[in-house]
Amino acid sequence: MLTPGLFQKLHLARFTENGAYLMDETGAEVLLPRRYVTDSMREGDTVEAFVCFDSEDRPVATTHRPLLTLSQVGPLDVVAVSRIGVFLDWGLPKDLLLPRANYRGELRTGDTVVVALEADRVSGRLVATTKLGAYVSNREIKVCEGDKVEILVAQRSEGGFKVIVNGVNWGMIYDNQLFSPVRIGDRMTGYVGRITELGRIDILTRKEGYDGVREASDRLLEMMEDNGGSLPVCDSSSPETIAQTTGMSKKLFKKALGGLLREGVASVDDGGIRLIKR
Question: What is the pLDDT of residues 76-90, one digit of tens each?
Answer without folding.
Answer: 999 999 999 999 999
